[in-house]
Design goal:
By secondary structure, the protein is mainly alpha-helical. The protein is built from 13 helices and 4 strands. The strands form 2 sheets. The chain has a two-stranded antiparallel ribbon with strand order 1-4. It has a two-stranded antiparallel sheet with strand order 2-3. A hairpin with a 2-residue loop joins β2 and β3.
Amino acid sequence: MSWPLVMVIALALDAVLGWPAPLYARIGHPVTWLGRLIAALEQRLNRAPYPRLLTGALTTALTVAVAAGLAWMLAALLPDGWLGTLIAGVLAWPLVAARSMYTHVADVARPLDQGDLPGARGAVAMIVGRDPAALDQAGVSRATLESLAENSSDGIVAPLFWGALLGLPGIAGYKAINTLDSMIGHRNDRYEAFGKTAARLDDLVNLIPARLTGVLFALTTARPRAALRVMWRDAGHHRSPNAGWPEAALAGALDRRLSGPRSYGDRITDEPWVNAGRPDPDARDIWRGLRAYVRMLVAFAGLLLLWAAV
């Protein structure tokens, strides 16, 4: 079976359909299923007297094993030929988040276009963890574009990359790792030790996809050299070893600055600027970012088709 072709089918299904609300209401979503498993394990294992580094590693291993193991069993049952390829694409479809990413970002741009800052703040709260009440128009625009860049990698390119490389177990295992990181990979008293394995594993599996996403953003813009230059220069400014690559590439492509100081509740972090010295983005730049996002996805789909042909 051609797994790169399977991933193109999954991406196409998601781009057209998303994850329909009636389907979510009836059966939920694979990520929510993973979330319930992680929450149950965390509740039982993230407490004294257990060594939290060890029990966190066990939680990570069990979650990834369950997700990849079930996917492997489903893949083993698939028929050969086009029917099996199509069914595999349907099975991989819910593990891609291309349409929902576009929708969430557009939901911020629309009220911002109309001067409705409270509405834009409410929409941006759906995609970022920082305090939206502290964001002005430029802050909302920066946060939205940063989320678009980062989630282009870990929500779309990375799962499809691992699916193309390792099949259904690859995409399911990646989504398990990424969900673990989002739930327990935090640097606070509760999760510092327990979530360390999940966070480090997430960093590892995103190394290639994040850089690939950045390159695709850069090469599909009208300013490829500038975008590549900013990406190479500023990617390391980010606190994440991976998120800075697509974020810096998008900043260079749009010729706008991103990142900078930000507020998380009562805590302010003094993050360095990406593409410092350039203007702040606004609603028009969010729409420009979405067009760059679509071009990047089309280019990545083309790479997957080339991979399938080879």
